[in-house]
Amino acid sequence: MPFLLIDFPSFDPIAVAIGPFAIRWYALAYIGGIVIGWLYARSLLKNERLWGGPAPMSLVQIDDFILWVTLGIILGGRTGYVLFYNLPFFIDHPAAIFRLWEGGMSFHGGFLGCVVAVMWFAHRAGISILSLGDITTAVAPIGLLLGRIANFINGELWGRATDASVPWAMIFPNDPTHLPRHPSQLYEAGMEGILLFAVLAIMIRFGALKRPGMILGAFILIYGLTRIAGEHFREPDAQLGFLWGGLTMGMLLSIPMLLVGSILVVRAVRRGAPQPVEAIH
Fold this sequence. Notes:
Layout: E1 6-7, E2 14-18, E3 21-24, H1 25-46, H2 48-51, H3 59-84, H4 87-92, H5 107-125, H6 129-153, E4 170-171, H7 184-205, H8 214-231, H9 249-271
Parallel strand pairs: 1-4
Antiparallel strand pairs: 2-3
Helix pairs in contact: 1-3, 1-6, 3-5, 5-6, 6-7, 6-8, 7-8, 8-9
C-alpha cells in the first residue's frame, strides 16, 4: 500500500448481535436520525420566539406525525431505489424488494415519501403544509449525517478513484479494483449533514420559521447543490454508470430540486412573515 494511503478501518457492519438477532449500524442510523430529529423538532416547537408566537402545531401532533414520516422515509426510499437505480434487477427478482437489510435506499425517493406524508398528515390535522414541511426538513440533516456515516462503516457507496498522493485516499475492502478512492461518504456527511444542518439552524435563529416554506425551500435547494457537488467525487452505481454528458442519476434527480427550492424560497420571501394578532382590550 502506498505510504500516504489511509487503511480503511475494520468496521463490523453489525452493531449488536444476540444469537440469530442482529442490529446493523445502518438500521441504527435510521432509528437514531428519527429519534434525535423528533427531539429537536419538539425543542423548536416549544420555542415560541422562533415562530413569532405559538407554533403552528402542537407537540402531540408532531408525536403522531413521527410514525407517518417514518413510513414515508422507508417506503419512499425503497421504492425510489427500485425505480431509479435497479429496476431491471427487481423485475427479475421481485422478492428482493422486501430485503431491506441488504441495503438499497434512495434519498430522493425517501424525500418524495416524506412529501406525501407531510401533505396527508397536514390535511388530516388541519395544519399548514409549509410549516410542517419546515419542521420536517429542519431536522432531516441529522438523519442524512448518520446515514452517510453508516454508508462509510459498511464500506459502500465509495468514491471515485483518485491519485494515491491524496492524503486521505482509501482502498475499500469490498472494491474489486482495489484502487485508492475518495471517502465520498464522509464528504457527503459533511455537506448534507453538518453543513446543511448548520445553515438551516442559523436561518431558524434569524426568524426563518416565521416565513412558512422558507426552511423547506432552503433545504431542497441546498441539498440539491451539495448532492450535485458530492456526486463529482462519488462512484456511480455499477448497474447505471455515467449517464448523458458524464451526469449521474444522483445529479439528474437533484436538478429539479434546485428549481423547486428556489421557487419556495422566493415565495416565502415575497409572502413575508405573518403579522401577530393583537390582543383585544
